[in-house]
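User: Second chain of the day. Same drill as before.
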Amino acid sequence: MSLEVGADDEAKSPVFLRIAHALAADMRSGRLAKGTPLPGSRKLASDLGVHRNTVIAAYRELMAEGFVETMRGKGTYVAQSLPEVKPRRFQAGATSPRDRSQIGFAFSPSRGSHPFVPVPAGTFALGNVNLYVDANPTQNWRALAELRFTNYPNGSLGQVAVPALNQSEQRTSTTVYDVNAPDPGWQSVNWGGIVMQQAWIQGTFTDWLGVKVGYWLTPFGIWNIDHGTPTLIGLTPPSFTGGRFYPKNQLGVQAVGHVMSGAWTFNYTAYVSNGKTQGQLDPTNDKAYGLRLTAQTMRSFPMTFGLAGYTDRYSQSVANANPSDISSITLHEIVAYRQWDIGTDVSLDIDAFRFRTELAIERVDYEPGKFESSYYISGVYTPNHLSWGWFTIGAYRLPWLGLEPYISCELYKYPTPLSEDIAVPGVGLNIHVNTEVQLKTQFTRTYFFDFDGEHDHSSGNMSMLASRLVIAY
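Assistant: Same format as last time:
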């Protein structure tokens, strides 16, 4: 496809807007007739010498303004009825993707998560308020439930504003009048929510065999085994945890145990679970399987080496009722893929120095015709991909004032609207007030780029400074 991408007066506009403007001009001139299929994002990106995400952003603009239509599984086509006026978002000087993210544009960072809008200003925020209920009724049995209390869903964003489509922003409100107050009817209250983090029962029969059943954290890597403050060191865990690769939590059964050999302890966790599901129940017989192995020693200093694996077939279906018999319901599978995850990690504690590093690799292969929509962009689908993420952090506890400075770095390759390659270096300081209280402060800078250096994604770079007061007891 030949395309004239404007320069001169549009030279300061983002590339994706200039591509959208050029395509819109071809549609108005008749060069691209109504109903004409547009080339795939990969092909057009290759023809123009730009990143595929740039073309995806251009197609999204055209879609929002009514220039193109999509047919699931068939691609993107020129709309049968074109807008009568030139879209204002195609004008030179239009905001860049980063600017738009600060005025209401949102994207989802991972499969199945909700949209969010970055906050461009300083703000106070409530962190984790977690309650642990731990019981050991006998020596061989244990039960644990972890509950997180949160202000959400009040104020959460349900729909972003798209003026061109007469779509207004929608946020969830949980404000109700408190009829139990001394002056009922006049006092209001915002109700929040309770998030189940884990709830399980474990029976230990021998050192080498125990069984855990229930809802548990996926035994993968360092930061998803225990997500408490002492384990984190920094403010946040790696971006590839928390559901971006393997699921953060799973519902199923585990076999756990350990054996000792000299100064080393070898641990294992093998499990079968529902894996990733749309809800609490798994509508298929495609279960997830995983394994984690670790080797630990205290000689001559504490160290742990870990290896983990996970595989699952994800399925997303819609329920269709028969018009002539609404009691007859069939499930139609619309998304299906197989994923494989493997990871390795190292933990070292050398006197006052703490070091952690972890690498995770994921492969996702979709079944024909059952691709998943990409970042809620209609007509654009996530391709088969190989992703990886690496995170490392080193902290040193100074001998005075409870100070523990640290440095961290994260690199990962994962398809996002801005780029597929991302680096997040950071520095931080933990102040250990006492054994239970910490003040944690961290600065990070996020860079979007291509390892091959062909494209410039620096307009999406961003910084974050955050601090959190934590008490654990």
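The chain has two domains: 8-94, 221-471.

User: Great, on to the next one.
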